[in-house]
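Before the break, one more example. Copy the sequence into your notebook; we will annotate it together after we see the structure.
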Amino acid sequence: MDLSFPSLTLGQGLHWNALLLFGALLLFGLIGGYIATKTHWVPRITGYLVVGFILGEGCLNLLTGDVLEVLNIFADIAVALVVYQLGRYVDIGWLRREKWLMATVLVSSILCFIFVSMALTAIGVSHIVAMMAGVFSIATAPAVVLVVLRDLRAEGQVTRRLAVMTALNNVVALLAVYTLLPVVVSEKGTSVWTLIWHALYAIGGSFLLAYLTYLLMMPLARLLGRQRARQFVLVMAVMSLAIGAAHALNLPVLLTMLAFAILSKNLDSQFDLMELEFGAANELFIVMLFVLVGASIRLSDLSTVGIAVLALIGARFLAMACGVFLFARVARMKWSQAGLIALGTLPMTEAGVGLMQALGRLYPHTTEAMLPLLAGCLIVLELAGPIAAQFALLKSGESGRE
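Here is what the structure looks like once it is written out:
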């Protein structure tokens, strides 16, 4: 009998290292999140970000190659889970009664575009980069807002408005990006009709894929019945299929999943689909997402765009605050509530870099010029934004956490 051991090839060694680091990320991420929660005002995701920064490009540079590919898959699923849960806060019937909230979202978006574009142009940033930054700054970070409000078990007027505004801000930002790019951007070697077709394909294809995903899921939800375990597996399976289809068709995952969540919430007249708590599965993906975001942070990015980053953040916060305060009285909100909602919108979307990378094929020059500014904003807002959002919800008095 041959008792020889199999040889340890280079490929097997790399595979083992990827698994080792993957498990270590979960452990270090959980420890970092636990330490962060020991400070009353600091949310656990800040701990995940710090761990990612230590392990990433900015420090130890361990998150590369196979590990980064695995993390990117988890990050896509995490974003899908987050926007699905956040999108289901968007109740069209409730929005009809709270019509001033939709006005707030639209006015805030317009002001954000104008204020940020003007502020960046005034300090010498190129006209195209300034306009694109104005569009990207409309979106509020969905993962940050959802994790903070779930951690705090927050319920109430400020919480509901902040959640719905976050979901709608992302829809407006994504639609604006794909609508504006063909108009303002000129890329060598790419015709304007190609750019327009790409924009129409991205928007129309995302909504069509979202609707087809909804048509696939609802009969299965009806067949399986209102049992949480079965519906949990169903939602995870359908979302995985949708993410895979979006990647295969080069469609924006964030827009597809937001549209799918809103459709599943508002077209399900018989309430066949249950409101699910993703619990431990959610935690796994959230750890991976924010460790990955933290790993992309390089403090050196701030050295060249520091003033532009401060201008963008200041103009963005002013625009969001103006939009919220403008409709506060007619929306029957107190000034303090309006201020807390404006503060809660401070986190900037962590999906921005991924979207820029997806657009890089058609708009290489624009994305190359835009990425340093966007990365600099994420460094500041991904660290300060969660703290601001948690502070806002705690001061609102709507937190269920003692």
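The CA atoms of residues 38 and 132 lie 39 Å apart. The mean pLDDT is 81. Try to locate both features in your own notes.
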